[in-house]
Each structure stands twice: as C-alpha cells, then as structure tokens.
Design a protein that fits this description.
Length: about 55
C-alpha cells in the first residue's frame, strides 16, 4: 500500500489538521498559579486522584 499522505495528495484530498507538537516543560517552567486547560492533563490528574481514593 502507498503512503497515505502521498495517496491523499495524488487524489487532491485535503489533509486533516495535524495537532501541534508537544512541548517539553520542567516543573520549574510552570507558574505556581497555572490552570490546567488541557483535557488530557485533566484526565490524567483525575485518574491519579481516583486511584488514591480507591487505595
């Protein structure tokens, strides 16, 4: 099978938008009053809290 991007390009089909690349951040880079806006981060934190409640 051909490369999917090449196949889409040959048939003049628009590419789906790509998500932005993830940035690397250390704990020192995060402000003390930062809010969690990313749903993925919020879901990960919720899983950690739920695991703590179960234990």
């Amino acid at each position: 099978m051909k490369d999917p991007e090449k196949l889409l390009n040959e048939n003049e089909v628009a590419f789906p938008p790509a998500p932005p690349e993830r940035l690397e951040a250390g704990l020192d880079d995060i402000l003390c009053r930062a809010l969690f806006q990313n749903p993925e981060v919020a879901a990960a934190i919720s899983m950690e809290i739920a695991a703590g409640i179960v234990l």
